[in-house]
Amino acid sequence: MSPRELLLGSFKAAVAAADPLMIVPQHLPKPPNGRTLVIGAGKAAASMALAVEQHWPADAPLEGIVITRYAHGLLTNRISVVEAGHPVPDESGETAAKRILDSVKRLSKNDLLLALFSGGGSSLLSLPVETISMAVLKAVTKELLRCGATIQEINTVRKHLSLIQGGRLAAACKAKILALVISDVTGDDPTHVASGPCAPDPTTYDDATAILARYECAVPRAVRDTLQRGAKGELSETPKPGDKAFAKTENRVIATAHQSLQAAVRFFEANGVRAAILGDSVTGEAREVAKVHAALAREVKTHGQPWQPPVALISGGECTVTVRGNGRGGRCAEFLLSLVNDLQGADGIHALACDTDGIDGTENNAGAIAAPDTFARAASLGLCADKMLENNDGYGFFSALGDLVITGPTRTNVNDYRAILVL
User: Fold this and answer.
1) Which of 178, 238, 283, 351: CA 20 to 30 A from 165?
2) Domain boundary among 255, 270, 293
3) Are residues 68 and 94 in the same domain?
4) Residue partners of 189: CB distance under 8 A and separation at least 6
5) CA-CA distance, 120 to 142, in Å (whole number)?
6) What pTM value is reported for the model?
7) Along the chain (423 residues), what's the average pLDDT of each consecutive run of 10 residues?
8) Residue range(s) defining the domain that contains residue 170
9) Which of 255, 283, 318 marks a domain boundary?
10) Rounded distance, CA 304 to CA 101, Å?
11) From start to end of 216-328, where are the E strands?
């Protein structure tokens, strides 16, 4: 098997390990005495809903609505699937989120709320507070994405501008709640997946204000006014740990980045290559993280430390990109371009960086793949890796070389997957 086939095969194994159609059925509860309402949001929402339908008793009541990203829908019969905007929210998501909240409020204590959450749900399940319009929420979301804030920080702000996130959905429900969560965040805390509609929120209005100040975010006045009113106690806080709203609620994480990394390890080892997991929660600026990975790859190649080649160095997590240029590219392409720029054709080192949801940033690729000759091939085409990195144009770089990885929507999401193969 060639290095390229090994890397692509390992990514496929990592994604398969997070397939909702295989995972969700193992966690389905028995139907209640009353109704079962299924709600959900995220890039995996349609696949999760389909898994519920396929394994729910035909004679047991089942209804619901889930929200997923455009082009991520699937055909279902008992649960409605709505497509909406991601990473920037839109009116389709807002309308569906209101339908979800209204339906949840009508449940009784004999019913069951089965909630399905996955990465992307924060944008898709957007129901802003009365003081914030959808136009304002779009503006603040774009600014937070641009400034390089972590997903946890972005969600802290979003929770305090929402009628449904940060545990507010659980607080509005009289029924028992089981939330099945596919985690796309480092640490796998349900409070950060889809901004935790059914999970306690330990953050405050003051925390949200501090994040906007830390990144010098230029946000509409309505956002600052809302957060200030909340900090003064004029608006209710999100439900905190220990709140009675969670006495009837279980948040169960059913798929994680680490599980997918373990699947990749098994794939490499089945093909005669040792694999080492560097971590499932790697964060930081993508280009800087790549430099650390490049240094480790060189150490392995040159000195056989801390592992003798051949070895695959794999990692997960979610890096950030502070946008300074006007190029096309997500965090995976940026990571890989920085790695290529740092290694500059080091012999025997191949690499792949892809998002497990099949979408790197806002482009049509999951990520990209690189080989020892990538730097030289790019130079022969007049492509300057350093300049394109400064322009945040990883997509343009790897597209010109024919080295984008395009999978289409995978309908799951356990964060980024990176593999460096040292031969």
Assistant:
1) 283
2) 255
3) yes
4) 199
5) 14
6) 0.91
7) 97 98 97 97 98 97 97 96 96 98 98 97 96 96 88 95 98 98 93 97 97 94 96 96 96 97 98 97 94 98 97 94 85 97 97 96 92 98 96 96 97 96 98
8) 19-255
9) 255
10) 56
11) 249-255, 274-282, 311-317
